[in-house]
Specification:
Elements lengths: L2 E5 L5 E5 L2 E5 L24 E3 L5 H4 L2 H8 L2 E4 L1 H9 L7 E3 L5 E3 L5 E6 L24 H18 L2 H9 L10 E7 L2 E5 L4 E2 L1 H4 L6 E5 L5 E2 L2 E2 L4 H12 L3 E5 L17 H10 L4 E4 L5 E4 L13 E3 L41
Parallel strand pairs: 3-4, 4-5, 5-6, 10-12, 11-13, 12-15, 15-16, 16-18
Antiparallel strand pairs: 1-2, 1-17, 2-3, 7-8, 8-9, 9-10, 13-14
Helix pairs in contact: 7-8
């Protein structure tokens, strides 16, 4: 069985499991000033499901187009569902969730939904390598006031293509309540998180073989801003989830901001994971690139995994319903080393 994951920028991924195509977020229609991912929502021709982490523009945008063009079912919050219905997506293609749901996606693949948290976009933040503290205990009214000011400044600074991209896309100023998804396949589980936030009680009870984690902004833990750096936040998550493999996201210049690198340097995160959790394999992916998941790794055979780079991928695979309760890792069923291919995002399965 082959399971592949393609990164289409921000927190958008295409997960293929034995022919089942699952989009994790659907935001690919970017401002002209942003680096291209080689694909627009109008060019997506294959999708069985789309799992939406929250209702903001850079996550929900394109879900209506994908659903209407492909017949895919969209799973998301009630706010995401409201936006999609207003844009013509029929009820039978929308499954609403708020955390606690367990959906069957195919004979062998299922997904559990968990309530999550958005990053603290109302607070101060920094790139990896910088510790940020403070803003603990700020009331919600003050958070909303700060966020409104930031949005006003962002809209004033955005170029025409950025404003147009936001205005024409499916989106909401509300998160709708962030959601995480644990996708269960015969080869293992894949956790999808699209914003830097989590409830520690929930993550303490989840075991993910692969963790797809956001790595940008100021993390939120149990509703309060994380006191530390991005890399320290990611390590804390991995200590709870105990994944075999980690994929990082949300660290590209998806909004097309001036004087910002196309992709943020995540070296501090890779280095901290290698230092604290050397058995975790970090799968480094560039825009439009893909990787094969859950093949046997050196970490499973007892060695340190480190970081593995990806090239462009394609291919699919299949799965059953199960939630991992205790710590043990699932036995690897294939002895071949994970591979990648060099199919561009524009021509691989969409």
């Amino acid at each position: 069985m082959t399971i592949t994951l393609d990164w289409l920028g921000c927190a958008t991924f295409r997960l293929s499991v034995d022919g089942l195509v699952i989009w994790l977020d659907t935001f690919v229609d970017r401002p002209e000033s942003a680096p291209s991912v080689g694909l627009t929502s109008e060019e997506i021709t294959e999708a069985d499901f789309a799992l939406i982490g929250h209702s903001h523009w850079d996550h929900l945008a394109g879900a209506d187009v994908v659903a209407l063009r492909t017949g895919a079912t969209v799973i998301g919050s009630h706010e995401s569902a409201r936006v999609l219905r207003e844009r013509g997506v029929p009820d039978e293609q929308i499954w609403t969730a708020q955390g606690g749901e367990h959906f069957q996606l195919s004979e062998h693949v299922s997904v559990r939904v968990y309530p999550s948290l958005h990053s603290c976009i109302w607070s101060r933040a920094a790139r990896p390598g910088t510790v940020v503290t403070g803003d603990y205990g700020v009331f919600e009214q003050e958070r909303e006031s700060r966020l409104a000011g930031r949005r006003a400044r962002r809209n004033a600074d955005a170029d025409d293509s950025g404003r147009e991209a936001r205005q024409r896309a499916a989106s909401s100023n509300s998160t709708g309540g962030a959601l995480d998804y644990l996708i269960d396949t015969p080869e293992g589980t894949v956790l999808f998180q699209d914003s830097m936030g989590y409830w520690s009680g929930i993550y303490g009870g989840i075991r993910a073989d692969v963790a797809v984690l956001a790595a940008a902004g100021r993390g939120s833990v149990d509703g309060e801003p994380f006191q530390g750096s991005v890399e320290q936040f990611v390590v804390r998550e991995c200590e709870l989830l105990r994944p075999r493999q980690v994929v990082l996201s949300h660290h590209d210049n998806f909004g097309g901001a001036p004087d910002v690198p196309d992709v943020t340097d995540l070296a501090p995160v890779h280095e901290e994971l290698a230092r604290i959790l050397p058995r975790v394999e970090v799968l480094a992916m560039g825009l439009g690139e893909g990787v094969t998941l859950l093949a046997c790794t050196t970490a499973q055979r007892g060695g340190a995994a480190g970081t593995r780079s990806a090239s462009r991928a394609s291919a699919p695979s299949r799965a059953p319903p199960r939630m991992l309760a205790s710590s043990g890792q699932r036995r690897c069923t294939t002895m071949s080393t994970a591979t990648t291919t060099s199919t561009p995002a524009t021509t691989s399965k969409a």
